[in-house]
């Protein structure tokens, strides 16, 4: 019988050759059970790694890519520090690549994989909500979608990790309603992911409390990769005030937009929360220092980052992902930007 090769061991264990190499070289970034299974198989078949197998790690960089749609969004900027810290713990490096609003993120990812010899991809932002049951993204490497909205879909070969945008938006608007507000505007984006889901949550809250939906209270930002920016929040706030729309509260679907709304309100000589109550979404640290401090829905960034890395490492180690969608709850941070009527 011919001597087994590292490829044979990988096939027997149902993992990649790079995973076998990490087990042989006692590297980090490999699941304990997977490592034990590989070492047991090696012992069973009396496999002796040759020098080329031991040197695989020299050719096999532990690098993943973070593909970000909306890289100027401060929410994503804040996540990068957490990603860096968690990936350093398992001796992985990462490259950051911006994806434009009109770019095909799958095509961008495929090109990066060729150039960088990546182990995996984490997508930040983007996503869609078509009601298909199953989605295959043909990348050839494991991937995770973190914060990108996926509604009613199973990702074959990958995993979606995000806050429940619709449910948490309902929570935000219900909070305003419970404070006595019934004329509530929403500033969102005309996209097919986060903006749409948060608009649906807004509608859910109105229906739950018997308030008719009024399209006039829905304001959409420009279609750009900066749809959730301070600038767009400012422009929407300015337009709402100038056209005399009679509302007492505004739900800005991002904290960045909320900051722009603040400027528009103050320029018009109005007050927060006496004239307009404001609630945001994301829980950016800087919102504590707005004047007044912003009431917002805080996303569990650290938990989502850790879960994204954990799921990606499982897939890289050749494990089948049992969870294809993981939804997190947000936390309502009650501050000073909302007044009871």
Automatic annotation (TrEMBL):
Gene3D superfamilies: 3.40.50.2300, lambda repressor-like DNA-binding domains. Keywords: DNA-binding, Transcription, Transcription regulation. SMART domains: HTH_LACI. The keyword DNA-binding applies. GO terms for molecular function: DNA-binding transcription factor activity; transcription cis-regulatory region binding. Residues 4-58 form the HTH lacI-type domain. It comes from the Bacteria. This is LacI family transcriptional regulator. The lineage of its organism: Bacteria, Bacillati, Bacillota, Clostridia, Lachnospirales.
